[in-house]
Amino acid sequence: MKIKNICCIGAGYVGGPTMAIIAQKNPKINVTVVDINEKRIAAWNDENVENIPIYEPGLSEVVKEARGRNLFFSTDVDAAIDKAEMIFISVNTPTKTYGIGKGMAADLKWIELCARQIARVAKDDKIVIEKSTLPVRTAAALKDILDNTGNGVKYQILSNPEFLAEGTAVEDLQAPDRVLIGGDIDTEEGKAAMQALVNIYAKWVPQESILTTNVWSSELSKLTANAFLAQRVSSINALSELCEHTGADVNEVARAIGMDSRIGPKFLKSSVGFGGSCFQKDILNLVYIAKSFGLNEVADYWEQVIIMNDHQKRRFAENIVKTLYNTVSGKKIAFLGWAFKKDTNDTRESAAIYVADYLLNEQAEVVVYDPKVTEEQIYADLDYLGTRSEEENRKLVTVIKDPYEVCQDSHAIAVLTEWDEFKDYDWKKIYDCMLKPAFVFDGRNLLDTRELTKTGFTVSSIGSPLVRKTKEERKSAQVS
Ligand code: UDX
Ligand code: ADP
């Protein structure tokens, strides 16, 4: 099957970067990314390519190369569906906030809307690809809707989960460990559809890295990959607490175990807790599926990864209060970082949101600096929690675009995101402008504790005991 036009529904963190690379590598195929969010599409089309709505290192260059050539962004969803032989569904699938499966199952409302829209518009056969993370068996539901509400046209449903990590999306897309394509391997039509998608990736991905499986294996693999990764983070975070009590250093432990080639060094960085749009949502999906089959032990096993993560976020905030003499009421706490990880402007499920919420409940004043996250987004994240009114959030939280100004007259600094630039700050200058004793709570194990204590700070880093400056260090900090 020859593919000339691709449509992608959803111009978000997955759809945008993925389609940009597909278009870059397949210059003869027209790729149209559509979204109902007009503001988002306008930003993707902004003349200044630096203003695209998603920050990812290297992405603006790719967009610059392909946009207007064979990469298009539009709000005309129907027209793009009509024209395309292949449609990617890349809309959001957040955890349900209501009804059955509330707080656990994926909300497939948007997926279903897409399916119905495709069914209404399509006049010829289509390959429909689920790109968003979806619970197992969603493809079957999609097929059901398409086959029963369509205009009699034939659909092939494929699952092609995205494994890109935000912050490294372009790298991950350009050199993926593997591309996974699930489809109906028992029929000729199914195999042909899979081959059509294989051909698109084969333009830049080695054939041996493109795996084809049945649809359900593909769907489950996505959830499993994220569950395994998140489990590693929760495992090392569980040990971080033990390290703080025993005097072991979690970085040293991670290094020592990571050198065992069976364990490997990645995803062993202890932190204030994982965030992002995938880990929690995917594990909750897994738990929900397991429960729905009555597999309670399986469900409990995976749920513990989330319980540990919630504990880590709360523990970090509690430690700030405890260390600041059991009260932060009226105290100014400077947040360095709000994004859920470095090199992205995405804040979904960021630990910073929950730490801020906890400290605000303790009547702290929170001042935030993040190099890429907008003020609007930070307030939206807090408003979404619903803990306090919009007015209160704006009264208690200030967003400042200058890191030194953020720290001015603060009692403590909390490092919530591992942005590289934080390491290069003039920490002496920051120390001098803070109230004393000055504290740093390093939720990312990012900064050099020894250097900071030499400057005069008291440092509490995840996974190591609290380090106070020595008398000599305090003296020399005063002298200099
Ligand atoms: C994840 C998967 O990595 C990716 O394959 C999938 O497609 C989507 O979900 P993402 O959420 O973008 O990607 O980021 P990831 O790098 O996995 O980090 C998730 C969270 O874990 C972040 O908050 C990060 O800071 C945290 N983390 C990661 C740690 O705390 N320690 C680590 O060692 C690694
Ligand atoms: P992800 O990280 O999965 O890419 P995002 O929330 O960043 O998630 O992106 C999903 C996008 O899908 C949003 O921009 C949203 O407006 C869009 N979207 C959701 N439903 C539809 C729909 N029915 N038609 C077109 N776009 C949609």
UniProtKB/TrEMBL annotation:
Does Repressor count among this protein's keywords? no
Q: Please report the stretch or stretches of sequence annotated as the UDP-glucose/GDP-mannose dehydrogenase C-terminal domain.
A: 334-449
Enzyme class per UniProt: oxidoreductase
What this protein catalyses is: UDP-alpha-D-glucose + 2 NAD(+) + H2O = UDP-alpha-D-glucuronate + 2 NADH + 3 H(+)
Q: In which pathway does it act?
A: Nucleotide-sugar biosynthesis; UDP-alpha-D-glucuronate biosynthesis; UDP-alpha-D-glucuronate from UDP-alpha-D-glucose: step 1/1
Which SMART domains does the UniProt record give?
A: UDPG_MGDP_dh_C
Which Enzyme Commission numbers does its entry carry?
A: 1.1.1.22
InterPro entries of this UniProt entry?
Answer: 6-PGluconate_DH-like_C_sf (IPR008927), NAD(P)-bd_dom_sf (IPR036291), UDP-Glc/GDP-Man (IPR017476), UDP-Glc/GDP-Man_DH_C (IPR014027), UDP-Glc/GDP-Man_DH_C_sf (IPR036220), UDP-Glc/GDP-Man_DH_dimer (IPR014026), UDP-Glc/GDP-Man_DH_N (IPR001732), UDPglc_DH_euk (IPR028356)
Q: Which UniProt keywords apply?
A: NAD, Oxidoreductase
Q: Which family does it belong to?
A: Belongs to the UDP-glucose/GDP-mannose dehydrogenase family.
List the protein's name: UDP-glucose 6-dehydrogenase
Query: Organism, per UniProt?
Result: Autumnicola psychrophila
